[in-house]
Amino acid sequence: MTVQRTFSILKPDATERNLTGAINAMFESNGFRIVAQKRVQLSRHQAEQFYIVHKERPFYGELVDYMISGPVVVQVLEKENAVQANRDLMGATNPANAAEGTIRKTFAESIERNSVHGSDSVENAAIEIAYFFSGSEIVG
Ligand code: ADP
Ligand code: MG
After folding, report:
1. Whole-number Å distance between alpha carbons of 40 and 117
2. CB 3.0 to 4.6 Å from 104: which of 10, 47, 73, 95, for a disulfide?
3. How remote is the CA of residue 93 from the centroid of ligand 1, in Å?
4. Pairing state between β 116-118 and 72-80
5. For 82-121, b where at least 16 C-beta lie within 10 A, e where not — what string?
6. Radius of gyration from C-alpha coordinates of the chain
7. CA dihedral (48, 53, 56, 58) positive or negative
8. Are residues 82 and 138 in contact, defined by beta-carbon separation less than 8 angstroms?
9. Residues 6+ apart with CB under 8 A from 56
10. Ligand 1 center to residue 63 CA distance, Å?
11. Which residue's C-alpha comes closest to atom 9 of ligand 1?
């Protein structure tokens, strides 16, 4: 196992319901270190580019509208095997299918308003981290 970094977003449904501390507590109690974090309002362009892989999916337009509907918290999380460990802690995309104890089972409202984003590969983690953070903003 090697220490990895993964990219995380606390989505607008989480900031709206004042859940940023509760979700961060789940990260920290599960051994993640939050090595970078900032609260931002995504522009439409940023949200469109971030989710460009889903451009042809029927939910793309609504997803972009949702992601700019309020502030988000972008983060870098560090832990051994962080990418997969965070996918496991987040739970399934649809909270109806998410396991007990996961963030999405605990907090998500719907398949769209599912509280958190987490990188799905080490390669994408590096791309997503670089999209939002400069090296000097990440303090391990
Ligand atoms: P994940 O976030 O689990 O990696 P995806 O990459 O498949 O999931 O989808 C990106 C985001 O798009 C999801 O987290 C969710 O907010 C939204 N989404 C995914 N599938 C749907 C859907 N069928 N309807 C509405 N929104 C969706
Ligand atoms: Mg994804």
Report:
1. 15
2. 95
3. 6
4. unpaired
5. bbbbbbebbbbeebeebeeebbbbbbbeeebbbbbbbbee
6. 14
7. negative
8. no
9. none
10. 8
11. 93
The Cα–Cα gap between 105 and 94 comes to 9
Question: CA 101, CA 22: separation in Å to the nearest integer?
Answer: 13
Name the catalytic one among 95, 103, 117, 133: 117
Residue 97 and residue 118: Cα distance in Å, rounded? Answer: 17
Q: What residue type is 55 in one-letter code? A: K
This prediction's pTM: 0.98
Distance separating alpha carbons of residues 68 and 28, to the nearest angstrom: 27
pLDDT in tens, the chain (140 residues): 799 999 999 999 999 999 999 999 999 999 999 999 999 999 999 999 999 999 999 999 999 999 999 999 999 999 999 999 999 999 999 999 999 999 999 999 999 999 999 999 999 999 999 999 999 999 99
The ligand with the least distance to the CA atom of 116 is 1
